[in-house]
Queue: 2 jobs
Job 1
Amino acid sequence: MLHEVFNVGELCKKEAFKEHTPEGLDMILEAAASLSQDHLRPILVEMDTKPPYLENGRIKVHPKMRELMQGFGRDGWISMSAPHEFGGQQVPFTITEAVGFIMGAANYSTMVYPFLTTGAAHLIESFGTQKLKETYIPKMYAGEWQGTMALTEPGAGSSLTDVVSTATPTADGHYLIKGQKIFISCGDSDAVDNIVHLMLARIDGAPAGIKGISLFVVPRMRPDAKGELVFNDVNTAGVFHKMGYHGAPIAHLIMGEANDCRGYLIGEEHKGLSYMFQMMNEARIGVGCNAVSIASAAYYTSLEYANVRTQGRKITEKDPLKPQIPIIEHADVKRMLLFQKAVVEGSLSLVFESTIRYDLSKTSEGEEKEKNQLILELLTPMVKSYPAEMSILTTSTALQIFGGYGFTKEFLAELFFRETRIHTLHEGTTAIHGMDLLGRKVTMKGGMAVMMLMQEVMADIDRAQKFDALSLFASILGEKLLALQEITMHLVSVAQNEGPEAYLSDATLYLELFGILAVGWQWIKQGVKVEELKAAQTKKYSADFLQSKSYALQYFFEYEIPKTEGLIRRLKSDNRVTMQAGKETIL
Amino acid sequence: MLHEVFNVGELCKKEAFKEHTPEGLDMILEAAASLSQDHLRPILVEMDTKPPYLENGRIKVHPKMRELMQGFGRDGWISMSAPHEFGGQQVPFTITEAVGFIMGAANYSTMVYPFLTTGAAHLIESFGTQKLKETYIPKMYAGEWQGTMALTEPGAGSSLTDVVSTATPTADGHYLIKGQKIFISCGDSDAVDNIVHLMLARIDGAPAGIKGISLFVVPRMRPDAKGELVFNDVNTAGVFHKMGYHGAPIAHLIMGEANDCRGYLIGEEHKGLSYMFQMMNEARIGVGCNAVSIASAAYYTSLEYANVRTQGRKITEKDPLKPQIPIIEHADVKRMLLFQKAVVEGSLSLVFESTIRYDLSKTSEGEEKEKNQLILELLTPMVKSYPAEMSILTTSTALQIFGGYGFTKEFLAELFFRETRIHTLHEGTTAIHGMDLLGRKVTMKGGMAVMMLMQEVMADIDRAQKFDALSLFASILGEKLLALQEITMHLVSVAQNEGPEAYLSDATLYLELFGILAVGWQWIKQGVKVEELKAAQTKKYSADFLQSKSYALQYFFEYEIPKTEGLIRRLKSDNRVTMQAGKETIL
C-alpha cells in the first residue's frame, strides 16, 4: 500500500526528507515490527489483567512500561518525526503513523505513551519559547518525561468552549494555574520521571468562549532556579477504570489546590485552541489509524482461527462420517473475514491518503500545498470516524468467528473488541465530527475542498474504467458521488429553509455516507494498482495476494457500498423526528 | 404492550390458564420488579468485579447466589410455568418471559440460574420417566438443584451432529457416560447442592449423525439406593473467563473419568435432539428476550444521563455565557435515544408476538394451533437474532451517549455492552439461524408459514391504512414485504440454478432483512393501538407516552427500514464473492 498505491518513496525527493531513502523507510517499519513482536505484544494480556491503580496519590502502571519508554526514547521512536534541530530524524508523518499502526496492532496501550509525548513536544517546538523548548523537549524525546493533552474538564468535553480552568499572571512571567482536568491519557504514571501537560485554561479577564482560551505548559514537577525538580502542585485525584486498553491510564488531575501550580504560556494569549488544533488534527488521524490497527489485529487473529478450527461440513455433504472442515470454507465465515479485510484495508488506505497529504502539505508550496491542505481537512473527520465506528463492527465480527470461545479470554478477540471502543469517543465524538464535516469542511471556501477531492476521485474512476474487472465498480462509485452531491445540495436548501439545526440534525449519517464512499474510492485506487500489477505479470506479489485484494474490493462494492442507499434515502427525507421529539416524549 | 397490543389477559380464558386473571398476571410482574430492584440490581456491579473461580475442582460463585436460588425456589419463580401436578402455577409463557425480561434488565447473570433450571425440569416433565420426574423435579423447582443444557463439546458447537460423548448401556438400566462438555452455563456452582445435566450423548452402536444422539439426565451427584447423594463422576475441569455477565459461570466438564458416571435415558434412544429442541426453542426466544432486557437497561441508563448531563448549547445560540443545556436537547443525542427506543421496544414486541403464539399453540387445537405453531417456528430465528445482533449496536449507542464516561466503569453502559455480546453466540450463532430461516423455515410445508405470517401482517397493514399518521408507513411496509417475497423467489431460483450453497451463502443478510421487516410490523401493530388510544382520548396513558410511541415508530421507518434497501440490493446480486474466494486468497 505504502509503495505501490501511495508512492511513499517519492517523499524522499522532498528537501525535508532528503536524508531518507525508500529502503530506509522500510527498515524503520521492520524495526517497529520487531520491537512490537518482541516487546509489546508479549505483555498485552498481562497489561489487560493488571490495570493501572492509584497508590498514595500516584498512578502505578505496568512495571515494564518504564523500560519501554526509555527504549522508545533511546531508540528514537519518540523523536522520529521531529526536525533535526531537535534531535529528530525528520521522518515523514506517513511513516510515523505506519509505525503507530504496527505498534497499535501489537499493543495499543504501549504506543499511547510515546505518541502523546511526540504530539505534545511537537506543539512546544512549533509555538513555545526557546526556554520552553530547551527545558522540555530533550527530556520528552528521551522518554524520561511524558507529554499529555490536558483539555477535557468535568463540564467541558464536547463543548471545549466551556473550559473554566484559570491562569493568573504573575510578575515573574509564569501564570498560576487552577483547575481540574479529566480523562487525561497518561496524565500520571510511574513509567516516567515527570509529566508535561499541554493544558487549556483561561487567563483572568479573558473573553468568554473559545476566543478566551490559552495554552500552557504545566509540568507535574517544575525545574527550579537550580534546575532541580520541585513539585508543581499538580495532584492526581484518581484513575478511571476503563473497559479496555488497560495498559494506559486516564487520569483525573487537580491543578493548583495549594495555589502553587505554575503554567508557562505557549504562543499568544487567547489563541490556545488554534495551537492545540495542530496536535488535535494529528491526533485525529492517529485515532483513525489506531482503530484500524486494533481492527487489523482482530482480523488476523480470527483469520488464523478460521483456518485451523474445524466445524461442520459443506452444505452438500450429507455424510456425518466425513471429517469436519476448517470453518474458513463456509461462505458465511468467508463473508465475515472479507468484511473485516475490506473495511480494515480500505480504512488503512484512507489513513495513508490523509498522511501523505499531510506530508505534501508541509513540503510543498502554492496551489499544491493548498490543495493537499484542503483535502486533508475535509478527510480528517472521515479518517477519524469511519475506522473508529467500523472497528466496533469488525472486531465484533472477529469475535463472532470464534463462536462461544470469542466471548472468553481464551483468545484475543474480546480484548480487541473492548479496546477499540474508545475510538468513537476521544478526540471528538462521532457526532462532533459529523458537524465538523457538514457544518464546516463541506462549505469552507465555497465548497472548494469537496470540489478538489471530487476531481481526484473522478480521475481515479477514469483510470479504473479502463479495466474490465473494475469498470462496473468505478461506475457505481461515480453514481454514488453524484448522489452525494445531490444530497449535499439538498441539505444546503434545508439549511436555507429550516435553519442550521435541521441542516445538521443528521450530520452523523452524512459523515457515515461520505466515509463509505471515501473508502470505496480507496478500493478503486487499490484496484487500479492491482490490475496494473496483474497486467505487468509482476513476481513482486503472489497471484493469491493480488487476488485477495480483488476479492476484498468486490466485497466492499457488493456489501458495503449498498449501505449508502438507506443513508441516502434517509438524508433525502423531510421528516424531522429527531428534532420534533421533545425530551418529555422520549421515555 | 402486554395488555393493549397483545391482550395477554385473553389467555386467562384458556383452560390451562383459567386460574389466572389479568390483574393477577400484573401482580406477578410487579413482584418480579420488586425482587429485581431490591435483590438483583444491587449486586450487579459486585458480580461483575468478582467473577466465578475454580477452587479445589469446584466453581465458586457470588455468595449471594445461593440465597437467591433458594428464594427463586421458595417463591415459586422457577416453577411458575410448570403444570399444577408438578407444583407449578401454570403461568403463561408470555408472563414467564416478561419476568425474565425484568430480571434480565436488572441483573442478567442472576436469572440464568433459575431459567435454565426451569427449562431442564420442563424437559424431564415432558419426556422423562415417572421416577426421573419424582427424583429431580421437586429439587429443581425448590432451587436446591441446578438444571443445565449439556450440548456443546470441544469439537461440536455449531455442528451438534458431531457430538462424541458416549453412553454404554448397563444391566441396571442406567448408562455409563463418558465425554467432555464445554460452555455449560451454571455447569457447576456452589449456589446449589446438586447439578442436573440434560446431556446429549451417543449410545454405543448408535447411527452416525444427528439420528444417533440420545438425551440423558446426568446429575453431578446421584441419589443412591438409600436416597443419599453420592458423587457421579462429573468433574469440573475449568471455568471460562468471560467478557461479561460474570455472575453466571460457564463450565468445562468431564464426565466418566473414573468410569462411574451414570446417565438416565430420557424418552427413546436416538431421539435426543428432537427432545432437546423443546428446550432449545424456548431458550432461543429467551435469548432474544434477554438481549432486549439488557438493551433496555442500557437505554434507560443513557436516557437518564441525557436528561441530567449538560453540555453545549443550541447550534443557533452563539452566546458562550448562556448556560449549557441537557444533552437530550441535541438532535444527534435524540437520534441515539430514539434508535435505542425504536429497536428495544420493537424487539420486545417481537418477543411477545412469539410468546403469545407459543401460548396459543399450546392451548388451542386444529388450524389455530397449527397456524400459531408455524408462525412461531418461522419467527424463532428472528426473535433470537434480531435482538441479539441489534443489542450490540444499541448498547454501544448507549455507551456513546455518555461520551468519555461511557468507556469507564463509572456508569453501567460498558457493562451492558459487554454483557449482551454473548447473545449472537449461544443457542446457535446468527449464521446458524440465518440458515434455519432460509434453509428450513421459509420452505417448510411449501412455504405455508410465510404465507400465514404475510396474511397477518397484511391485515395489520390494512388496519394501519385507516390512520393518517400511519398510512405512509403502512404502505412502505407493504412495499417492502413485496420486495421480500421477490427476493425469496429470486433465491429459490438461485437454489435451482446454482445449488444450495449459493442459495444459503447470504442467509445471514436474508435473516437481517426479514428481522427488520418483522420489527417494522411490530411497530405498525403498536402504532394502530396508539392511534386507537389517541382517538379514544383515554386517560389510561399520558399524551406524552402515546406520542413517545409515535416518534419511535417514525424513527424506525425513517432510519431503520431504509437499511433494507442495501440488503435487498445485495441479495439480488449474482456476484458470489464469498463463495469464490478460496482460503488461499483471504489473506
Job 2
Amino acid sequence: MQKITILIHCEDQKAIIASVTNYIASIDGNIIYLDQHVDADENVFFMRLECEFSAKNWDLEAIKADFREKLANPFKMSWEIYTQEYKPRMALFVSKYDHCLYDILGRYSAGELPLEIPLIVSNHEDLKVVADRFSIPFHHVPFTKEIKEEGEKQQIDLLQQYEIDFIVLARYMQIIPPKLIALYKNKIINIHHSFLPAFPGAKPYHSAFKRGVKIIGATSHYVTEGLDEGPIIEQDIARVSHSHSIEDFIMKGRDLERMVLARAIKLHAERKTMVYDNKTVVFS
Amino acid sequence: MQKITILIHCEDQKAIIASVTNYIASIDGNIIYLDQHVDADENVFFMRLECEFSAKNWDLEAIKADFREKLANPFKMSWEIYTQEYKPRMALFVSKYDHCLYDILGRYSAGELPLEIPLIVSNHEDLKVVADRFSIPFHHVPFTKEIKEEGEKQQIDLLQQYEIDFIVLARYMQIIPPKLIALYKNKIINIHHSFLPAFPGAKPYHSAFKRGVKIIGATSHYVTEGLDEGPIIEQDIARVSHSHSIEDFIMKGRDLERMVLARAIKLHAERKTMVYDNKTVVFS
Amino acid sequence: MQKITILIHCEDQKAIIASVTNYIASIDGNIIYLDQHVDADENVFFMRLECEFSAKNWDLEAIKADFREKLANPFKMSWEIYTQEYKPRMALFVSKYDHCLYDILGRYSAGELPLEIPLIVSNHEDLKVVADRFSIPFHHVPFTKEIKEEGEKQQIDLLQQYEIDFIVLARYMQIIPPKLIALYKNKIINIHHSFLPAFPGAKPYHSAFKRGVKIIGATSHYVTEGLDEGPIIEQDIARVSHSHSIEDFIMKGRDLERMVLARAIKLHAERKTMVYDNKTVVFS
Amino acid sequence: MQKITILIHCEDQKAIIASVTNYIASIDGNIIYLDQHVDADENVFFMRLECEFSAKNWDLEAIKADFREKLANPFKMSWEIYTQEYKPRMALFVSKYDHCLYDILGRYSAGELPLEIPLIVSNHEDLKVVADRFSIPFHHVPFTKEIKEEGEKQQIDLLQQYEIDFIVLARYMQIIPPKLIALYKNKIINIHHSFLPAFPGAKPYHSAFKRGVKIIGATSHYVTEGLDEGPIIEQDIARVSHSHSIEDFIMKGRDLERMVLARAIKLHAERKTMVYDNKTVVFS
C-alpha cells in the first residue's frame, strides 16, 4: 500500500469536501483520515486527508497533475501532497543548553520521530560531544553581530548541502537572520521558555518568578521576524508555588521545553500543521 | 438559517464521505462541521456533520426521506438527524448529595446547557428545597429493594409523562432497574467518583486513600447492567498527596464530579457522542 | 477541643521555629499542621500553624498576650491568630455575569465554604433574582464615573453595616476605588479571565483568540491599584485549538473562572494565604 | 557550608518539632527547609529537615551520636541523616525498551540528576549500544525461570561490587527475586505503564484501549512482592480519545513513562520519599 497526506487551504466554497472525496474515490483511494476546519471570520477552508492506494494504481505524478487540474485550479487551492515514505530532513540549531538536544536525539534514536537529522549547527563547540555520541554531523558556525553575514552564508550553505527541509532551534540563543527566515518560511520551529504572550524575550523564568505566577509554561512556535511573535504550535504548563526558587522554575521549565518542542517537531514532521494569518491549524 | 446535525455509523466502505457530502451539496446545504472516525479493528465508520440550510430550501421530512433512500439504505447506515432548535429533555435523578445538583441547575439557569430540565426525581425528600429554589418539578419516588417494582413503575410513568429524552444520575445512590436501562439505552448518564476501571462500586475515595494513589479521578459513563462498566464519556483527575485526608479526597472529588458530569451532559445534549461496542466516539 | 490557626512573618532569624513550637508545647497545645517558608532573596520567614487545645486549657486572650510578649515582640513578627469557630464574612460584588455567582452560592449552600455570605452588592439589578433564590440580601449600588463618590460611600457603609471581612469580585465590571482598596488591603479577591500577566484589561478571550494561543487561563488575585497587577492567588488553564471560536473560549473560560475563583475564596477563608512584596505564599 | 537532610518518623508525640528544632539551634544549624506530616489514623509523625552548618562547627559523627542520644532514643525514632555531598549510586535494569533509558541517561548527562549511575544491567544485549554511547558499564545478566538462581546471584554480586544504593527498573521485563527485594527494601523503583490500581500486570495499554478510557496513565512505585502493588511514588496521565489506536496509546504512554520515572528517581535521590504502611510520604 502507498499512503499520502494531502493538505489544502482555500477560500471557503460549497462542495469542496464532496469534490475532493469524489476524486479520491474515483482513483480507488481509500480515505483513512479526514479532518477539516473553516475559519468563519476569514472565510478560509482547511483540510487534511490521509489516503491509501494499492500499489498497482499508484502514480504520484499523475495524481498530482490530476489534482491540480480538477481540484486545485477550479477551487484556487493552496495544496501539498506528501508521501509517507519520504522522511523530512531536519537541522538542529543549538548553543550551549543540552537538555532539548539530548531529548530530541534520544527520541530520534528510539525511533519515535518520522524524520532524518543529518545536521547539527551550533554557534559554540560545547555540544559537539553530544552530537558525536549520536554520530550526527556537527558544524560549528560562529555567529555574532560582527560576522553576521558570514555566519548566515555558512548556515544557508550547510542547509542546502544537507538538503534540509526544516529547522529546529533547540534553545539556540541567536537571532535568526531575516533572509534565513524568508527561505524557511513556517519551517523554523523555536521553543520559548514561557507561556507566550507572557514574558517574551530574555529571562522569562526570572520575570515569572518576580511576578509571582502560580503556573509557568513553554511555547513552541514558527519563527517570524517579530521576536517570539510567530504562529504558536504547542504550549504546555507546570504548577509552581511560593516554595520554588528561580532555579526550581528553570528545572521544571526544562521538562516543559523538552516536551513542548518534541510535540511540535512531531506535529510538523507528520504534516499536521498549517499556518494562516499568524496562527496555526493543528490537526489531531 | 436552519441547522441540523447528522450522526452516522455503518460498516466502513469506499465513498461514504463523498456520497454524503455530495448529497448535502445537491440540496444546497452548507457543511459547517464534519468529523469522521474509522474503527479499523471493527471496520466501522462513524461520522458527525453539521449543515446549514437557508430557510427557503428547508423541508426536514423530505431530507430524511431522501437520506434514507439515497444513503442510509444503500450503505446500511445507522443514522440520526437532529434539528438545532429542539432541545432534548433531561430528567435528573438525585438522592442526598447536592453538589452536582447545584452545579447543573446553576449552569442551566446561566444558560450554558442546550437542554430542558422538566423533572427531578429522588428517592429522598431532602433535595426538594433545591429544586424549589430553581422552580423545577420535584417528585419523590421511594425506591428500596422491597418496593422496587412500584418504584420502577412510578419512574417510568414520570419519564413518559414529562417526555424525557435522557436521564442524568447526579449522585443517585440506587441501582437502575434493567427495564429502565433497556428503555433508555445509552441515554442514562452516571457520574462515578473514581478513575474507572479503578475503584468501581462503593466508597472509591476510601479505597483510593488506602492504596495511596497520587491522583484521584471521576468518570461519567452511560449506564449498562454491569455496575460502573458502561461506555465512558469523560474522565478527569486531580492530584492528591500524603497530606490529604479522606475528607480532602472527597472535597476535591466533588469538583471533579461536578466538572466531569457537566461536560458529559453537554456532550450528550449536543449530540457529540456515539456508542459502539461498549465504547464512545466523542466528537469535538 | 479548640483549634486555632497562627500566621507569622518576620525577618528570618535562627530559632524561630524552635521558639514557637516550644511555646505551643509549653501551654499543652498539639501542633496538627506546620508549614514554613523562607524567602531567601528577601530574607523573610513565613509560618502557618494549626494547633489544638483541650477546652480546659483554653484562654485565647491569654495566649494572644503571651504570644505578643514572648514571641512577636522579640522576633519583631507580623502575626495573626484565628479561631476555627469564627467564619469570615464575605461580600460578593457582581454585575451581570451570573456563572461565578451561581457557582459560589451553590458551593455555599452545599456547605463547602467555611464562611458567611451576608451581602451581595451590584451595580445592576439583573442578578437580584439569583440572590433571592438563595435568600441572600442584595443591594443595588449604582456606580458610574459620574456618581463614583456616592457609590463608594454606599459600598463602604454596607460593608461596615454587615461587618464584612473580605470582598469577592465575581466578575464585577467596575474599577474599585482606591479608598476601598486601602480599607480592604489584601482582602479583595478578583477573578481575571486570562492567564496573567498575559492579556490584562478588557476582552482577554478576544486577544487570546487573535494571538492563536493553544491554552487559555484564569487568574484570581488580590486587588491593588494597578489593574490586574495584584498578588496572584491561583491560576488554572484549559486547552484550546484552532477549532474553537471566541464563543468557545468564553464558554471554556467560564469553567476556569468558576474553579479558580472558588479555590481562591476557599484558600483565603481558610487563612492559607499570606501576601508579601506583591506575591502570595499559599500554604497547602 | 555543609548541608544535611534529616528524615524522621516515629509515633506522634508532643514536642517532637520543638525538640528537634531546639537541638538544631543548639548546634548553630540553620533550618532551611522543614516539612512534617502526621498520619492521624496511624498516629505516626514524619518530618524532613534540611539544615546548613558553617564548616567550622561541622562534625557529622558527633551530630549523629548526639541525635541518637538526645532525640532518636527518647522519641523512639526511625531516622536517617544524609549529607548533600554524597550522591547515591543507582543501578539501571533494562530489557529491550530504550525510551526510558535514553531519557534517564540524557538527564544524567545534562546534569539534572543528583546521583551516580555506575551500572546498567540487562537480561538482553540489545541496549549495550546505548550504554556505550554514554560510557556506562553494561552487564548482560541472562534471567529466565530456568537460570533464576544464577541470575539472581550475578545481579547481587554486581550490585555489591558497584556499591549500589538503589535500583531503577526502566521497563525491565522480569520479575525481581524476593531475595533482591528484601536486600533493597523500598529501594527498587519500577515504572508501570498504567494508572494503578487500574490495569496491573501485562499489556495495560491494550486493556485501557479495550475499556475505552479517556485518560491513560503511568505509575512509579517501590517494588514489593505483590505485582504492581508497592507504595506509589508518582503518577501522571494523558488524555486519549476514540481517534487513538493502541499504537497511539503506547506512544503517548512513552512520554508518561519517561516523565513519571524521572520524577520518581529525582524524588528518591533527593531523599524526599518515606514509606509507611505501603504508602509514601513525598515531601515537596
